[in-house]
């Protein structure tokens, strides 16, 4: 039984070490939307208005996370994931509720292996 547990642990370590980085940059909206996503009515908000940027990704692995920020601030979200094609959905929220989302597709690739030097 100990051998099986150790083998599973080594397999998990090996799988988790083969990852690339999913990196997404997004700017928190500087406007509130007093309309709908299809017909927005934008209302300017002062700089420094609190926002939460949400990121949901789907591909070889899926997940969701968020970053607290302020209106107009560029945030960078990164996560170690296996290489592959990922669809990322991003939206902002604040005390007024959840805003409209944006979706993009990213190809995530692992970096090259170590080069071989030939004397």
List the main descriptive attributes of the protein structure presented here:
single chain; 119 residues; mainly beta; Immunoglobulin-like; 1 helix; elongated
Average pLDDT, all residues: 88
- Output the CATH class name: Mainly Beta
Query: Helical residue percent?
Result: 10-25%
> In DSSP terms, counting alpha (H) and pi (I) runs of 4 or more, how many helices?
1
- The name CATH uses for the topology is Immunoglobulin-like
What radius of gyration results from the CA coordinates? 20 Å
Q: Structural class given helices, strands, pairing?
A: mainly beta
The largest sheet, given as strand count, sense and whether it forms a barrel, is: 4 strands, antiparallel
The number of strands is: 8
What is the general shape?
elongated
SSE succession: HEEEEEEEE
Number of domains: 1
Distance between the termini: 48 Å
DSSP strand content = over 45%
Low-confidence stretches: 4-17
Strand arrangement, largest sheet? 5-4-7-8
Q: Using the 3D structure, state the CATH architecture.
A: Sandwich
SSE topology sketch:
Layout (H helix, E strand, L loop, with lengths): L1 H16 L2 E8 L3 E3 L8 E3 L5 E9 L4 E8 L3 E8 L2 E11 L2 E12 L11
Antiparallel strand pairs: 1-6, 2-3, 4-5, 4-7, 7-8
Please provide a written account of the structure.
- With 119 residues, this protein is mainly β.
- It has one domain: Immunoglobulin-like (Sandwich), CATH 2.60.40.
- Helices cover 13% and strands 52% of the residues.
- It has one helix at residues 2-17; strands at 20-27, 31-33, 42-44, 50-58, 63-70, 74-81, 84-94, 97-108.
- A 4-stranded antiparallel β-sheet has the order 5-4-7-8, with no helix packed on it.
- A hairpin with an 8-residue loop joins strand 2 and strand 3.
- The relative contact order is 0.24.
- The model is unreliable at 4-17 (pLDDT under 50).
């Amino acid at each position: 039984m100990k051998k099986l547990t150790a083998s599973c642990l080594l397999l998990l370590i090996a799988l988790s070490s083969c990852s690339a980085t999913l990196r997404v940059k997004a700017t928190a909206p500087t406007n509130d939307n007093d309309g709908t996503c299809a017909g927005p009515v934008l209302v300017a908000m002062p700089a420094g208005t609190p926002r939460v940027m949400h990121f949901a990704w789907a591909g070889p692995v899926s997940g969701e996370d968020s970053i607290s920020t302020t209106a107009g601030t560029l945030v960078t979200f990164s996560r170690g994931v296996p290489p592959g094609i990922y669809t990322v959905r991003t939206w902002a929220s604040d005390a007024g509720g959840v805003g409209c989302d944006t979706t993009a597709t990213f190809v995530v690739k692992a970096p090259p292996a170590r080069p071989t030097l030939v004397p």
